[in-house]
Known about the structure:
By secondary structure, the chain is mostly helical.
Amino acid sequence: MEYIVLQNTRLSIVMKMAEVITTSIYMAIKQIYNCKVAIE
């Protein structure tokens, strides 16, 4: 039982990390695109 709880906790942490990384990449691309539009 404890092993399954530990695995689920790890999965939860990995999912949160993935969400943070994807949000960061999305925001960076959005910012770069906005800069390019402003320059042109």
